[in-house]
Amino acid sequence: MSDIDIRAVEEHERRDVADTIRAALLTGPVNDEDFERSRSSWDECDTLAAWDSDRCVGHVGAFQFDSTVPGGAKVTTAGVTRVGVLPTHTRRGLLTQMLHRLLVESRERDYVLASLHASETPIYRRF
């Protein structure tokens, strides 16, 4: 695999990242209205994107929220979201690298749980 840079998404990169996620999910680019509607959610999300030169090729993110666990305690949770890798970069361990780093960084931020509600559950079993 070529040198892939995995790093936090900068504000000016969000639109490119959104389009990458949608392409990975086999949908078209985000339109202006939908992107503007989702703009504030990017501020509330921990983000990691994979860059092959100047091209975004993958992304994972996590929203912070509290989950109630048995016994009634509330614990800080990383809600994994916006997961995708372009078809040109799959089967190379890129998603594993991004998710591992996201989970490590979530633990460093004192998140107790991580959760993912996936539309393609079999893809994510190992996580």
Computed structural class:
alpha+beta
Gyration radius (Cα, Å) is 15 Å
Number of domains: 1
Named CATH topology: Aminopeptidase
Keywords:
127 residues; alpha+beta; Aminopeptidase; five-stranded mixed sheet; 3 helices; 5 strands
Task: Please characterize this protein's 3D structure.
With 127 residues, the chain is an alpha+beta fold. It is built from 3 helices and 5 strands; from the N terminus they run E-H-H-E-E-E-H-E. The protein has a 5-stranded mixed sheet with strand order 1-2-3-4-5, sandwiched between helices. The chain is globular, with a radius of gyration of 15 Å.
Short description:
The protein has about 130 residues and is an alpha+beta fold. The protein contains 3 helices and 5 strands.
Question: How are the elements arranged and paired?
Answer:
Blueprint: E1 4-7, H1 14-24, H2 32-43, E2 45-52, E3 55-68, E4 74-85, H3 94-108, E5 113-115
Parallel strand pairs: 4-5
Antiparallel strand pairs: 1-2, 2-3, 3-4
